[in-house]
Amino acid sequence: MEPLIVLVAVTLAILVAGAAGVRRLRHWSVALRGGLAAMFVLTGVVHFAFMRAELISMVPPAMPSPGLIVTITGLLELAGAAGLLHRKTAPWAAGGLTALLLAMFPANVYAALAGIANKSADTLVPRTLMQIVFLSATIAVLTFHLRSRTTVQRKTKGI
Question: Which of 31, 95, 103, 142 is the most exposed place for a label (fewest CB within 10 A)?
Answer without folding.
Answer: 103
